[in-house]
Design a protein that fits this description.
By secondary structure, this protein is an alpha+beta fold. It is about 20% helix and about 20% strand. The chain binds iron/sulfur cluster (2 copies). The site of one iron/sulfur cluster has 15 residues, from helix 3.
Length: about 80
């Protein structure tokens, strides 16, 4: 199954091309208070492992390569 399709269905989308998890970055995983992000070692990129989110945004703000987009639901904006 295409990975892009999986990541589009969850609120936190990681641009695998920009993500430098393959070089050891784990910032988003470390800052997420819910522990819903993880690193796909085969892909060398972070992804949303569990579809839970507080929309608190440190993952997006702290990512050194701006690889993360948090899609905040319209009703929460
Ligand atoms: S917005 Fe907050 S809860 Fe959601 S993935 Fe990022 S750090 Fe985790
Ligand atoms: S913080 Fe950014 S570059 Fe680092 S693992 Fe997460 S998405 Fe990838």
């Amino acid at each position: 199954m295409p990975l892009a399709k999986i990541s589009m269905s969850v609120p936190v989308v990681v641009n695998a091309e920009a993500c430098i998890a393959g070089k050891g970055c784990t910032v988003c995983v470390d800052v997420c208070p819910l522990d819903v992000l993880a690193i796909d070692k085969a892909l060398g990129a972070a992804y949303m492992k569990y579809d839970e989110c507080w929309y608190c945004l440190p993952c997006e703000a702290d990512c050194p390569t701006n690889a993360i987009t948090v899609n905040i639901p319209y009703l929460l904006r």
